[in-house]
Amino acid sequence: MNIKLLYYGAMMGISNIIPGVSAGTIALIVGIYDELLQSVRDFFSPRIKQTLPFLIPLAAGIIGGILAFSWVISWLLEHAFEPVQFFFLGLILGVIPFLFREAGAKTSFRAVHVTVLIMTALAVMTMDLFTPQEAARSAYELTAASGIWLFLAGVVASMSLLLPGLSGATVLLMFGVYGSAIYSLLTVDVMVILILVAGIGIGFIVSSRLIAYVLFAHRTMTYAVIIGLLIGSVYIVFPGVSGQFMMLLLSLVTFAAGFTIAFRLGRANDSMRMKGENPS
Prior knowledge:
InterPro entries: VCA0040-like. By secondary structure, this protein is mainly alpha-helical. Helix content is 79%, strand content 0%. The chain is built from 13 helices and no strands. The protein is globular and about 55 Å long.
């Protein structure tokens, strides 16, 4: 088994439970994004056997990263909710300049792209009116309606594996199920996990070829939508300010740390492309 792919997968898994930096962004930065897209396309074709040496260790790393890091996120959400949310905000805002560069916004954005970006951001903001409010760490109350909502969250979150800049955790935050999903992993809430995994699995199968197509055929518009999603998610992730000086100071520090990490990851990808390096 390819140890390097296990490591890359673990990085992708960890990033996908932290709002802001997506698994797709990590794949871009470590130089396996194009191979990932190609493998996903080939997985649903007669060339499936050729994809397995790449996808199996990568998937194992992703699952391992998610399981290993979930308890850390859960503890932080319970004991330092406000600073953690500001860290997430920093990550989200820090990755946006990278996405504008990936989209070639300076030369390719037109009025229609800006309009779609703004409308997407506003649509995400209005989700807050319908999204159930959750505690930082709590069990998910399953009903018919909440089960469907959780399944839909999994479907949309699955797209983050292939879309640079869109984190699965950000999607779960938009749907108001992030804290409960992390808590369910730790407490092994089988029904919640099964519904979420079913949504992610079905969403990935249904959307993977479509995502690969739109990224190639409608790249600029796709990035306009992704950027709009992230800008809109800032409104949802923002936890407010408690008014306590030390808490505000700590939140500003975590915000700066998150922004710096995401911004430098984007710059690292730019540097690799300019040098023509492929770290995989």
